[in-house]
């Protein structure tokens, strides 16, 4: 039965080949590989489709014409439902399995996929005019942008590559240039084509392998009947340990995973490459077990189908017609027009380099030239510290479809935790399950996790659904740590139930941070401003929590805004300075004596004094900067409830130790307040930005080189727009404060 089907499959292949105009009279016994080589018409249907190979009638129909009898189990045509055949609704349904909400983005992506397929149905002169509508996905951190791309890659059968914009640098700079995106896309397409081809041909390959092994077992001259008598045994695996004598390529690579197994794509390609490169020609005969021989023969048979040249050609074709490039974190190469925090000189250059690729140009790869006219580009970014309109105008124009993803709510979090097929709760349960620990979350616990996640996101730092990972990790931390011993002690599976109370107990730390935030920044802001829309939300959550957690009042926590770089080196220098000064002091005595006893030339005196003066100058400069160069700038909660937050400047003291100077927020003179745009930009680009603090010294920050931990708050601080600062501004210049706030 299987043999018959295989023949049928071959027959259809041949029919398709015939239709393509090649090998018209090839006998059915000819090796199919010979037909496949240099004959794209004989490629399996799904490959042709993905490859945008649309010459002549569709192969399925061609096959049907040459093969009148009905084929209930069509081998490869039906085996794979390509994404091009999926309707937009089906694509959304598939995305729904893993991604919660974000309907607009899913819809846009689904339509874009369908449009690729539609375009192929349009007749030629018009088809060439239809270009894909590139897309820009905008949404806050952790709301599912990258996740959509990841899932898209899985359901999409066209060549796909996902890159991060930050990996690239302008041509000529150190780093990867954007053409690499297209090269990666082609590499992916080749891997995909080879894999698909092998999958499609699996049946034919299996048949050939079986025949060769049975022949090796029974002898070249054995009759079909003899072979058939072994066939069932072979298939049941009973012969696996029997030795056979087979021919293997001279440098046969050792093959770990059997064909069609779970070996990674790369691994497979490497194996195939090896065979292409080194395995040609006559091999040697070796005796081995059937179970060992099978994968080797499979490689040899598969090689006949995976012809490097035609696969590459089809892969490039597929890339040009159906390729999809997902560029993540595109906002990271956009510099805000207002501020240049973390701005990078070459960022704009990368945008400029992207233009021709997105608009359509030819990129040369090692496999040949690739035209990017019809490649679909989907870009995505959070755009926290810049706006889409800060992108180069030309780039904006090339991303005409904008989709906004929404921030996630507690309800969404609940769904994320419970609905996706492999949701986070299931993952945790599976992990602990391996240690014989059965983890059970009550529904109330999951609700509480979702609620806390939303609350912390709203009040501390919005990291979207990533917050769920943080919280879950904290909740199972102890169980996870103790699991191996617990399960061993009891000898049977241990059941651990996580209830709402456990959640509350475990996430206390996170909520404390939030308290700090509210007592520090938010109370300051809301008591003065009377609450704008955003603050109102915060307020709604705040009181309930403050009641619960009154006693935490004296916990000192801080929120770091900035960290200076090079502190370690600086500290070493400062410590050396102490020795230097000691050295000078020690030198003073002999120099003095020397001078007193005379007998010394003028040059020697000059040199000695220069040494002393130079060393003293260097030391005092170091001393000057060490107590001013900020190693860490942080916000601290108000000293008393209802007060305004404080700032902590951490610098090095005389001995090179850390010195924390806490000052009231109002003492800082905002260096960038009301500066014109150009001046702000210049100030931020300076290596050191001086900051005056009333009643204290002047400090130096290096926005340009330092590490910005919380850019938004730092910016607000430097421009005098933090709530606590505004209080002071209100007092000082009434009109001004009134202007700035609603
Ligand atoms: N809508 C969602 N449905 C299900 N899971 C989600 C959703 N949004 C985010 N997640 C989960 O949160 C994690 C982070 O999401 P993702 O990587 O997509 O964030 P992002 O939007 O790309 O954020 P960023 O702008 O920071 O890159 C993912 O691992 C995913 O499991
Ligand atoms: Mg992302």
UniProtKB/TrEMBL annotation:
<feature type="domain" description="Clp ATPase C-terminal">
    <location>
        <begin position="408"/>
        <end position="505"/>
    </location>
</feature>
<feature type="domain" description="AAA+ ATPase">
    <location>
        <begin position="131"/>
        <end position="409"/>
    </location>
</feature>
<dbReference type="InterPro" id="IPR019489">
    <property type="entry name" value="Clp_ATPase_C"/>
</dbReference>
<keyword id="KW-0645">Protease</keyword>
<comment type="similarity">
    <text>Belongs to the ClpX chaperone family. HslU subfamily.</text>
</comment>
<protein>
    <submittedName>
        <fullName>ATP-dependent protease ATPase subunit</fullName>
    </submittedName>
</protein>
<keyword id="KW-0143">Chaperone</keyword>
<feature type="signal peptide">
    <location>
        <begin position="1"/>
        <end position="25"/>
    </location>
</feature>
<dbReference type="Pfam" id="PF00004">
    <property type="entry name" value="AAA"/>
</dbReference>
<dbReference type="InterPro" id="IPR003959">
    <property type="entry name" value="ATPase_AAA_core"/>
</dbReference>
<feature type="compositionally biased region" description="Low complexity">
    <location>
        <begin position="57"/>
        <end position="68"/>
    </location>
</feature>
<dbReference type="GO" id="GO:0051603">
    <property type="term" value="P:proteolysis involved in protein catabolic process"/>
</dbReference>
<dbReference type="GO" id="GO:0009376">
    <property type="term" value="C:HslUV protease complex"/>
</dbReference>
<dbReference type="InterPro" id="IPR003593">
    <property type="entry name" value="AAA+_ATPase"/>
</dbReference>
<dbReference type="Pfam" id="PF07724">
    <property type="entry name" value="AAA_2"/>
</dbReference>
<feature type="compositionally biased region" description="Gly residues">
    <location>
        <begin position="522"/>
        <end position="536"/>
    </location>
</feature>
<feature type="compositionally biased region" description="Low complexity">
    <location>
        <begin position="539"/>
        <end position="549"/>
    </location>
</feature>
<dbReference type="GO" id="GO:0005524">
    <property type="term" value="F:ATP binding"/>
</dbReference>
<keyword id="KW-0067">ATP-binding</keyword>
<dbReference type="GO" id="GO:0016887">
    <property type="term" value="F:ATP hydrolysis activity"/>
</dbReference>
<keyword id="KW-0732">Signal</keyword>
<dbReference type="InterPro" id="IPR050052">
    <property type="entry name" value="ATP-dep_Clp_protease_ClpX"/>
</dbReference>
<feature type="region of interest" description="Disordered">
    <location>
        <begin position="57"/>
        <end position="82"/>
    </location>
</feature>
<dbReference type="GO" id="GO:0008233">
    <property type="term" value="F:peptidase activity"/>
</dbReference>
<dbReference type="InterPro" id="IPR027417">
    <property type="entry name" value="P-loop_NTPase"/>
</dbReference>
<feature type="region of interest" description="Disordered">
    <location>
        <begin position="520"/>
        <end position="549"/>
    </location>
</feature>
<keyword id="KW-0378">Hydrolase</keyword>
<keyword id="KW-0547">Nucleotide-binding</keyword>
<dbReference type="InterPro" id="IPR004491">
    <property type="entry name" value="HslU"/>
</dbReference>
């Amino acid at each position: 039965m299987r043999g018959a089907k295989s023949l049928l499959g071959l027959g259809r292949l041949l029919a398709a080949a015939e239709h393509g105009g090649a090998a018209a009279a090839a006998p059915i016994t000819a090796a199919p590989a010979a037909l496949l080589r240099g004959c794209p018409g004989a490629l399996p249907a799904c490959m042709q489709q993905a490859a945008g190979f649309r010459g002549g009638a569709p192969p399925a129909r061609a096959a049907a014409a040459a093969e009148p009898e009905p084929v209930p189990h069509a081998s490869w045509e039906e085996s794979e439902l390509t994404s091009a055949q999926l309707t937009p609704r089906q694509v959304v349904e598939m995305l729904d399995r893993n991604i919660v909400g974000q309907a607009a983005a899913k819809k846009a992506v689904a339509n874009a996929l369908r449009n690729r397929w539609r375009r192929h149905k349009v007749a030629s002169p018009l088809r060439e005019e239809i270009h894909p509508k590139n897309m820009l996905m905008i949404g806050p951190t952790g709301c599912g942008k990258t996740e959509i791309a990841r899932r898209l890659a899985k359901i999409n059968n066209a060549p796909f590559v996902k890159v991060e914009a930050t990996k690239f640098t302008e041509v000529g700079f150190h780093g990867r240039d954007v053409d690499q995106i297209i090269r990666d896309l082609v590499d992916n397409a080749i891997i995909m084509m080879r894999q698909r081809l092998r999958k499609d041909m699996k049946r034919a390959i299996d048949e050939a392998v079986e025949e060769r092994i049975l022949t090796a077992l029974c002898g070249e001259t054995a009759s079909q009947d003899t072979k058939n008598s072994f066939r069932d045994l072979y298939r049941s695996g009973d012969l696996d340990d029997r030795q056979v004598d087979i021919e293997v390529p001279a440098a046969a690579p050792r093959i770990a995973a059997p064909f069609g197994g779970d070996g990674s794509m790369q691994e497979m390609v490497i194996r195939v490459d090896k065979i292409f490169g080194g395995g040609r020609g006559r091999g040697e005969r070796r005796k081995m077990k059937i179970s060992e021989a099978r994968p080797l023969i499979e490689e040899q048979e598969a090689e006949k189908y995976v012809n490097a040249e035609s696969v590459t050609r089809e892969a490039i074709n597929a890339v040009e017609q159906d390729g999809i490039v997902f560029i993540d974190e595109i906002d990271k190469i956009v510099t805000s027009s207002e501020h240049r925090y973390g701005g990078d000189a070459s960022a704009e250059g990368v945008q400029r380099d992207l233009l021709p690729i997105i608009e359509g140009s030819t990129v040369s790869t090692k496999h040949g030239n690739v035209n990017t006219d019809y490649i679909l580009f989907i870009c995505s970014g959070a755009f926290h510290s810049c706006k889409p309109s800060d992108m180069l105008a030309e780039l904006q124009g090339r991303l005409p479809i904008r989709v906004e993803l929404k921030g996630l709510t507690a309800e969404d979090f609940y769904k994320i935790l419970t609905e996706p097929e492999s949701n986070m709760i299931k993952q945790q349960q599976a992990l602990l399950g391996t240690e014989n620990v059965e983890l059970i979350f009550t529904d109330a616990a999951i609700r509480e996790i979702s609620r806390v996640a939303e609350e912390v996101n709203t009040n501390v730092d919005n990291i979207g659904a990533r917050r769920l990972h943080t919280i879950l990790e904290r909740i199972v931390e102890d169980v996870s740590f103790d699991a191996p011993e617990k399960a061993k002690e009891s000898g049977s599976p241990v059941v651990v139930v996580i209830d709402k109370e456990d959640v509350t107990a475990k996430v206390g730390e996170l909520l404390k941070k939030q308290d700090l935030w509210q007592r520090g920044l938010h109370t300051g802001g809301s008591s003065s401003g009377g609450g704008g829309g955003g603050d109102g939300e915060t307020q709604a959550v705040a009181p309930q929590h403050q009641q619960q957690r009154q006693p935490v009042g004296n916990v000192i926590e801080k929120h770091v805004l900035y960290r200076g770089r090079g502190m370690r080196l600086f500290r070493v220098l400062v410590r050396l300075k102490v020795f230097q000064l000691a050295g000078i002091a020690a030198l003073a005595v002999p120099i003095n004596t020397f001078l007193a006893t005379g007998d010394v030339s003028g040059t020697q005196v000059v040199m000695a004094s220069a040494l002393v003066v130079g060393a003293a100058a260097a030391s005092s400069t170091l001393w000057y900067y060490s107590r001013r160069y900020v190693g860490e700038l942080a916000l601290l909660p108000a000293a008393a409830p209802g007060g305004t937050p404080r700032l902590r400047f951490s610098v090095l003291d005389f001995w090179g130790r850390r010195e924390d100077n806490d000052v009231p927020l109002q003492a800082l003179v905002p260096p960038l307040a009301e500066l014109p745009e150009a001046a702000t930009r210049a100030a931020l680009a300076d290596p050191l930005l001086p900051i005056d603090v009333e009643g204290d010294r002047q400090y130096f920050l290096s926005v340009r080189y330092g590490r910005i931990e919380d850019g938004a708050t730092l910016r607000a601080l430097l421009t005098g727009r933090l709530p606590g600062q505004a209080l002071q501004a209100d007092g000082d210049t009434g009109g001004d404060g009134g202007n700035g706030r609603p």
